[in-house]
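lol ok so funny story. i was supposed to be doing the assay writeup but got distracted and ended up predicting the structure for this chain instead. priorities right. anyway since i did it might as well share w the group, maybe its usefull for someone
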Amino acid sequence: MIPEVLTVSQLNRLAREVLQQNFPLFWVGGEISNLARANSGHVYFSLKDESSQVRCVMFRNRAQSVPWRLENGQQIEAQVLVTLYEARGDFQLSVEGLRRAGIGALYEAYARLRELLEIEGLFAPESKRPLPRFPGRVGIISSPQAVALHDIVTTLRRRAAHLPVILYPTPVQGDGAAAKIAAAILLAAERSECDVLIVARGGGSIEDLWAFNEESVARAITACSFPVISGIGHETDTTIADLVADLRAPTPTAAAELITAGWFAAAHELATLGRSLSRILRSSVESRMQRLDLLAHRLLHPGAQVRQDRQLVAHLSTRLHGALAKRLRHHAIPLERWRWHLRQARPATQAQASRLALISQKLSAAAASCLAGQRQRLGGLAAALAQLSPQATLERGYSIVRGSNGKVVNGSDQVAIGDVVELRFAQGWANGRIVQRR
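and the output, tada:
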């Protein structure tokens, strides 16, 4: 039950669920514009034609598988799921796969044949025959050496080992392959020994898969008397045979799984519930990843934060200086008034200053007189000391004799004949030898 008044979050969630439940995985073509790559690896762009555009998001794990660099202006075909980004209420496409639009002459031939067969109604849903829920025998159109055949047989044995399999061997690539594939399909139809027929081969380029884009193969599939399921290439590969077949499987293995689905209905339903839960969880995770990208764009760079802080500090500094100046001006008038009162109450110091100057003059004269007397006494002491100085004695013609041991000789008994002595004069010195003593 929908409440009478919805919140915005509830409305967006309901809209997303309605979109995801009613739009299966499909292809849409257009031109890339407004391309942006997030740091997380997600790619955001718009897909547009002549009159409309739609927002697209390709998450990192999908974007990494694109074999070329996306640029604005490229014509592409995108395999998408329709969804809604709840945080902003934006309608958008979640891109699951990409391929280039237009690949030359082969693509033109493919487009012409597709248009012709579509006009004839070979692609019409009402012309498609349902697969039998419990097929009794399965036919396979493929090459005996193909990996696709091995994958199909392995899957059939795993899911329905009792199910008989008939192989109609044929080349699936190269010159004449289309005619041989068509002949094998007609042979299977003529024998009418199967309940369902698988036309299969592995993945490859458009050239490798071209045999399944030939008109003869499309006509043979249409002429077959029982349902035909195609399992050609990978999920992103779409051939004319896929469009004409009663059911197209994304891979050969998937074709085998679809044929055996009736035998494992309960398991299939359980797997469907699991896939639904996985899809819901992935959608929730992707929505939160987009939200994270949005918040990441709103994060402020540290350098910008520093600049903002500097501007704030400068602004606060200006305000502080202004407030201090205003406060100083406010207190200046009372301060000047107290200064005036202080000048009025100041004692007379001129007389005291004159008396202090006189005392200072007398003190200086007394200090000078005392110093002169001390200098005179010091001069007398210096003169007396000079008279007693050894140098004064030497100046009067005396000398000092030192022995070989460096000691002053006071008597002749301190030297022997032949000793060398040192004679110190007032000016200079000399060596002498003792030749006589008394």
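The chain has a mean pLDDT of 86. The two ends are 151 Å apart (CA to CA).
back to the writeup now i swear
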